[in-house]
Amino acid sequence: MMASSDVDVRSEGSLFSDQNPSEMDALCPSPPGPSRPQRNYERIGERTGTSFCQTLIHLLKGNIGTGLLGLPLAVKNAGLVLGPVSLLCMGVIAVHCMKLLVKCSHHLSAKMNRPSLTYGEAVQYGMENVSWLRRHSQWGKQTVNLFLIITQLGFCCVYFVFLSDNIKQVVEAANATTSSCHMNHTSQTQVLVPSFDSRLYMLCFLPAFILLVFTPNLKYLAPLSLVANLVMTASLILIYFYSIMNITNPTNLPKVGRVSDYPLFFGTAIFAFEGIGVVLPLENKMQRPQTFIPVLYLGMGIVTFLYISLGTIGYMCFGDQIGGSITLNLPNCWTYQAVKLLYCFGIFITFALQFYVPAEILIPPVVARVSERWERAVDLLLRSVLVIFTCALAILIPELDLVISLVGSVSSSFLALIFPPILQMVAFHSEGLSPLVTAKNVVISLIGLVGFLTGTYAAIERIVTRNALKHEDALSSYMVQ
Question: Of 149, 159, 219, 413, which has the maximum CB count within 10 A?
Answer without folding.
Answer: 413
